[in-house]
Amino acid sequence: MENTKFSILELAVITENGSAATSLKNALELAQHAEKLGYTRFWLAEHHNASSIASSATVVLIGYIAGGTKKIRVGSGGIMLPNHVPLIVAEQFGTLETLYPGRIDLGLGRAPGTDRITARALRREEAAILSFKDNIEELQHYFAPKDVTKAVRAIPGEGLEVPVYILGSSTDSAHLAAKLGLPYAFAAHFAPRQFEAAIDIYRNEFKPSKQLQEPYVIACVNAAVADTQQEAEFIASSAFLMFRGVISGRPVPLMPPVANINEVLNEYEKTVIAQMLSMTFIGDKSSVQSQLDTFIKRSGVDEVMFTAHIYDHAARLRSYELLSEIFTG
Fold this sequence. Notes:
Elements: E1 5-10, H1 20-37, E2 41-44, H2 58-67, E3 73-80, H3 86-99, E4 104-109, H4 116-121, H5 127-130, H6 132-143, E5 164-168, H7 172-180, E6 184-186, H8 195-205, E7 217-226, H9 229-248, H10 267-276, E8 280-284, H11 285-299, E9 303-307, H12 313-328
Parallel strand pairs: 1-2, 1-9, 2-3, 3-4, 4-5, 5-6, 6-7, 7-8, 7-9
Helix pairs in contact: 1-12, 3-6, 7-8, 9-10, 11-12
């Protein structure tokens, strides 16, 4: 496990009776905490029209986090490319890389990160999803070395080696990441079903590129770690309540934990949530270490990226502290 990198995916989730301002402040505090604990990177997700998530202006938030830290890598997990024209993304991340050299990652996803009505409000056509590969290549073109003969240039942006990552929650993006020779991050924290098939496809089809010579897999998973098993199960219940809102179509802010989640969920909710959260690591440090050791040996991932829907901010900080101890000893 000492050879496996560990990172964080942050959604800036808004809690019940909380606010976006508090969530963003807490996100920065978490990033500073993660930097001290040795985490490799801190990524921000892009979601729109989600009443419980404050990371919609992802690029702005990346700048906020990078400006408040010193060395941890900061990036997108990810920028939902159908919502944006490649030139604007190149200029934005070129600016970030110029301000915080050697610290910016550009993770790209093909989904809009929202519902269809909101996707239309973002002024992007559904065809943009089908043009994902072309848009990535256009984006890479803008990052290419300076060429004054280009009709359109990204300034800042050109000549900057902003690393690009492909995000996926199914096997589709695995083929593309392999073909382009880019690192692949799988969203097992909410769509674990095709994880093993996707990373097998990616590794088997991988073609080296200028950015990457060997396949590189990041697995994004959920975690809730505490000093005791009972406390870990207690704080993890907020995530189950959050996902109940997702599957019911009635999203809610992150709710306080409950003593017995099984008394709150019905049988259908238990079944669906168990499938969605099957790659969730809950327990005390010893228990989670054993779970992660098995997972890493079986999957062979290069990096594990954790997200934690924990209501109490201090408990969330403690969870990430215990996770870091698993990797650093």
